[in-house]
Every structure is written in C-alpha cells, then in structure tokens.
Amino acid sequence: MDDLVCIEGLSKVHYGAGLLKRRARTVRAVDDVTLTIGCNTIMGLVGESGSGKSTLARAVLYLDRPSAGSVEIDGLNPAVLSRAQMKLFRQRAQIVVQDPHAALNPRRSVAASVAEGLRNRGVPRCARERRVAELLEMVGIPARRGRDHPEQFSGGQRQRIVIARALAMDPRFLILDEPVSSLDVSIQAQIINLLLDLKHQLALTYLFISHDLNLVAYISDSIAVMKQGRIVEQGDAADVIAHPQQAYTQMLFQSAPRLFDTDPGRR
After folding, report:
1. Would 161 be classed as within a structural domain?
2. Which residues are registered as beta bridge partners of 235?
3. 41: closest CA among 221, 163, 219?
C-alpha cells in the first residue's frame, strides 16, 4: 500500500519571552515526530490533553509552520511550494475541528459557508450551488436547509456541515481533530459512521485525533500514541490494542470506558 502522508522528524518549538536577564522559556510542543499514513486508511492519534496532538495537526497542514522536519501529502511538500502550488496543497488536505459552532460564521447561511472554497477556486455560481446541495445531502443535511444559519442546527448537524465544507475542496486527506468530543454519545456514533461511509465512498485518508483511545480503537487501522510532544508508541491498531508495549499506552487503555465495539470487523 502506498503512503499518502509522510511526516519525518517534525518539531514545533514555542519560544517564550524572557524577563530581564532570564533566559526565554522554550517549549517543544511537537518533538521529532515521524509518521506515515497509507492511502485510504485511518491513523488514530491519541494522548492526554496538552500532549501536542492539535499542535501537530496544525504543523502538518502548515497552518503553523513547523520548526524542523518535513511533511509530504500526496506528493506535495509545502516547504518548497509556490503560493499557487500551496492552493493545491490546501485543497488536498483539510481539517475538521472540535467546535463546529466556532467553525461556522453565524452571519452566513450554511450554503454560503460550504461554498466558500468553491468560490475561491472560481467555480461558476450554478455549478457551485449544485455542488453545495450535493454535499449537504451527502452528509445528511437536506439541501433545502442551505439557506438556514448555524444557530438553527443542532451540534451534530453543525458538525455535518463543517464536514461538508471540508469536502467541498475535494481533499484526499482529512485531519479530524476531536471531531465528536463535544457531542452526546449517540450523536458521536452517527458522526463516526458518517465519516466511515465517506471514507469508503470518496477513498479518503484520515488522521483521527482524540483523547478517547476506545473510540480511536474502533475507527482506526493504525494508532500512534503521543505524550509530551513525542510519539511513544505506534503500530497496527489491533496490535497496539491487544499488546500495548509502553506503560503510558497501557494506562490510557485501562482508564478508557468501553462505549464502542472495538472489533475492526464491525466497521
């Protein structure tokens, strides 16, 4: 299987301001991370809050430029791309964040929000409206509701809309950063099943970030465990679940309530 995403030696260092003659404090939020994600697979990334998962996500997409290391997504290395080429990189790789309410402009209709990327790409209005309707239906939102605003939808519906907006760019790779953690458990299951359906339908590749190792075990083909900015364990999901090698990973599993069936055959 070919790799769609190759991350090598990636680091992100934050430098604090020093007071008087004190040396500035340095924080290695991401520290020498190397990962590969195969085409049309899901890598789960787990770790406690503050372990660096979201910082890694932003560095991978060059939303925050990494301090060291390299990223290649679908053959594109953002460190050497021109501005025009970066537009293609942004289309190939998208992110779905934790808080759908904050991700959507309350003053715009959801159709306008979903259409934003299409408009920026110069897609004609008629084709844009047709594609937005298709995307809303694809994620389970009736197309007729495109004229409504975010406050008229539930949290789960808003997350569906955020997913539709990401898909409007026709990406090959999605980073899902805690995409269901703010939702009720029953709604979480619906969104997870939607993401799995979309993966198969559109041949997508995911980096699924969560502090919930049990949920990651359900959805993932491979798992990486992050602690204090470093990857401390990674491998095939079934192997990491059945035989965690690191004490930190064992601790995460022991503390995880069982809310989902973790049998990969059920996916």
Report:
1. no
2. 223
3. 221
How many domains in the chain?
1
pLDDT of residue 263: 52
Residue ranges of alpha helices (H) inside the chain are 53-60, 83-92, 100-103, 110-120, 125-138, 155-167, 185-202, 213-219, 237-242, 247-255
Q: What is the pTM of this model?
A: 0.91
State phi, psi for 202 to the nearest 5 degrees.
Answer: -110, 5
pLDDT single digits (tens) 182-223 = 898 889 999 999 999 999 999 999 999 998 878 898 999 999
User: What is the sign, positive or negative, of the torsion defined by CA atoms of 58, 59, 61, 62?
Assistant: positive
**3-state class percentages of the chain: helix first, strand second, coil last, to nearest 5:** 45, 25, 35
**What is the C-alpha radius of gyration for the chain, rounded to an integer number of angstroms?**
19
Mean pLDDT of 165-185: 94
Distance between CA atoms of 245 and 235, rounded to whole angstroms? 10
Residue range(s) defining the domain that contains residue 229: 3-74+172-266
Considering only CA atoms, which of 149, 145, 111 is closest in space to residue 130? 111
